Amino acid sequence: MESLRRTVAIVEDDASMRRSVLRLLNAHGFLTEEYSSAESFLARDGVSNVGCLVLDVDLVGMSGIELQRRLKESGSGLPVIFITALEDDALKAMAMRAGCIAYLRKPFAAALLINAINDAFKP
């Protein structure tokens, strides 16, 4: 059951970035699910065991901020770690107010992401 709690969903529309994050997390013992859009994440199988979400802010279609808002409105307590290439203090402040675990600017150090995910899985 421990491994189910350590499943991380990666929602990133840049395929090479998504693969890089996936490889990093797998190398650190996390199970992963990958999605190329917020819409595909929302359409996933309901039996998903995701315990943490690594979410790009600037996605094609629905934004990461909008996805986080929808999850919260539906009662989800899924921890969110935002990743972004955007340098926007207002956007960062909005994400932090919405309760994300971390807001990491690309390129970020691998240790920052791993530490944030470990924090998200703490009871």
From TrEMBL:
4-aspartylphosphate modifications at: D56
Domain Response regulatory: 7-121
Keywords, sorted A to Z: Phosphoprotein
Top-level taxon: Bacteria
Classification via Pfam families: Response_reg
Full protein name: Response regulator
